[in-house]
Amino acid sequence: MEGLKDKTVLVTGASKGMGAAVARTIGRHGANVIAHYNSDRAGAEEAVADLPDDRKMLIRADMHDNGEAARLWAEALAWRGRIDVFVNNAAVMLETAPIDASDEQWDDVWGETMQVNVLAPARLMRDAVRHFRDNGGGIVISFSSWAGQRGSTNPGAFAYGASKAAIKALTQSVALNYAQQGVLAYVIAPGLIATQMSETFLRSQGGKEKIFKTLAMGEWGDPQEVANVVAFLASGQSRYLSGATLDVNGASYIR
Q1: Name one Pfam family in it (predicted).
Q2: What is the arrangement of strands in the sheet containing 8-11, beginning at the earlier edge strand?
Q3: Residues that are catalytic
């Protein structure tokens, strides 16, 4: 991944799961890493622990607030005066709004999910595209989900699937409209990966044994495998793949 050396990369949600694996991996390949977190600073610190101080920066921001997202971008950009790659990973999955939920519960879950998973990331993506367009190009890598491609199998988390479909469409729109300005944009659509979010999903669906039987490989994926895909895309070695959605689900959902 020689193309990552000395690139400056902003990773949202870098304190755990796939975001932490991404921050660790791109740092290992020579990138300068801006690790965003909300409440888990220790997790973000651990993700970039192996990097020298001059190649890492930690920034706290709460994606429930668009102003916080704007501040995150401004502080990240000020660190080195340039960002080369934006990895749009931070998200929530709330499972408490099935069809029969109260109107209040439904509206609360949909409102929070769309704010954290779509509106704040969209604000960051807009800032990224403006910066890339005016500075010779750059790369956006957004995390969708197989739930955003096939629909959610969890009736309490319809908002999550819808939000991941929205971020996919936004990222593809960026790829389509700004390709000639050097802006590349890719979508990662993970399936069941070994993260805290997936643990929650498994509990809601009857547990590991039941769900693993439905997976083609009989097991969930390793966050490191997802991080390896992100590192490849961030390296800029496959420009003509821009706009693509990469399904990382162990052949359990094939389109």
Answers
A1: adh_short_C2
A2: 56-60, 32-37, 8-11, 85-88, 138-143, 183-190, 245-248
A3: 160
